Amino acid sequence: MVKTYVELQQDLIERREQVRQQLADLNSSMQSEPVGYSTHMADVGSEVFDQARDVSLKRSLTRTLEDIEHALAKFEDGTYGICELCGSIIELPRLEVMPEARYCISCQVKSEGRR
Fold this sequence. Notes:
The protein has helices spanning 5-32, 41-77, 92-97, 105-113. The two termini are 34 Å apart. The longest helix is centred in the middle third of the chain and has 37 residues, at 41-77. The radius of gyration is 19 Å and the shape is elongated. It has a domain at 5-81. By secondary structure, it is mainly α. The chain has four helices and no strands.
């Protein structure tokens, strides 16, 4: 059964809280685990790898949170579900899978082809 816009909005609100919590947890662990001065190079390498992974994850979560916030703002201004490139309606099944989608499938494919 296809979700309604109200259900999609609620999903976005819930997802926003999950992502915020993940970011808070990640920030907390990143602050409490600085790279130390180990006597073994492999330990330092592992620590550096873990920090790089955490930075990448933080960047990804931050982008996700920005996309969610953008989608929720579109509910406020009445433009949710409208493609930002061509102005057509984004199909509900696409929004169910990716409620923060900015583009219809056609425009998404075109934009990915330009990369």
